[in-house]
């Protein structure tokens, strides 16, 4: 990708206000203001086009991590170009910096921007590691709860089977208990039926 912010957006470096608009004092402010408005409009139009071309979402789903990082860095440079070139003060400072390094507008990329990119990538990596660690803890905790629930369910089933076995043994030892239980259930059902019929009659 081209080096200067002008090249990144494909905007001409000619005829910027600080490069020699020599007009009378009475008209300087008006003409410079009009030029700035037109230049900013040109920069924003170029930015929209470049942003669409360089957006990381344009990458194929199977792109490698290196390609994704390169696409992000490229897109951030486009954003930096918009931020600097659309601001007359920042644009003037940028042009002065380029002149200091070389009289021919040689590429001068922002070290501060590169530092912010490195810090952001490190922060994203750290947050990703923290997120993955928390997910791992949650999965382990859920697995423990699942094992405990299954163990308690097995214990309940075993206790239920044991109680059922004990009841069957009691019935076998004392057959009359089974008859008594059936009689009790029948009398209870009869009482409930009588109560229901009386309630309907009233």
TrEMBL record:
Gene Ontology cellular component annotations, sorted alphabetically: cytoplasm; nucleus
J domain sequence ranges: 4-98
Coiled coil regions in record: 128-159
InterPro entries found in the cross-reference section: DnaJ_domain, J_dom_sf
Superkingdom, taxonomy of origin: Eukaryota
UniProt keyword list: Coiled coil
Segments crossing the lipid bilayer: none
Pfam families in alphabetical order: DnaJ
GO molecular function: protein folding chaperone; protein-folding chaperone binding; unfolded protein binding
PANTHER family registered for this protein in UniProt: DNAJ HOMOLOG SUBFAMILY B (PTHR43948), MRJ, ISOFORM E (PTHR43948:SF10)
Name assigned to this protein: J domain-containing protein
Source organism: Armillaria borealis
């Amino acid at each position: 990708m081209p080096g200067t912010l002008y090249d990144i957006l494909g905007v001409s470096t000619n005829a910027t206000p600080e490069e020699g608009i020599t007009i009378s004092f009475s008209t300087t402010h008006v003409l410079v203001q009009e030029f700035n408005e037109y230049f900013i409009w040109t920069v924003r139009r170029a930015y929209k086009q470049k942003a669409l071309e360089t957006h990381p979402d344009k990458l194929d789903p199977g792109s490698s991590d290196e390609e994704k990082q390169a696409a992000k860095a490229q897109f951030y440079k486009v954003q930096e170009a918009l931020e600097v070139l659309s601001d007359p003060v920042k644009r003037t400072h940028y042009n002065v910096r380029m002149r200091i390094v070389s009289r021919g507008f040689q590429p001068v990329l922002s070290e501060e921007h590169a530092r912010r990119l490195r810090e952001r990538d490190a922060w994203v990596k750290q947050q990703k590691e923290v997120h993955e660690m928390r997910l791992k803890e949650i999965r382990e905790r859920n697995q423990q709860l699942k094992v405990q629930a299954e163990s308690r369910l097995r214990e309940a089933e075993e206790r239920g089977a044991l109680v059922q076995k004990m009841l069957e043994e009691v019935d076998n030892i004392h057959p009359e208990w089974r008859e008594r239980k059936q009689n009790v259930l029948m009398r209870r059902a009869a009482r409930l039926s009588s109560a229901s019929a009386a309630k309907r009659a009233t």
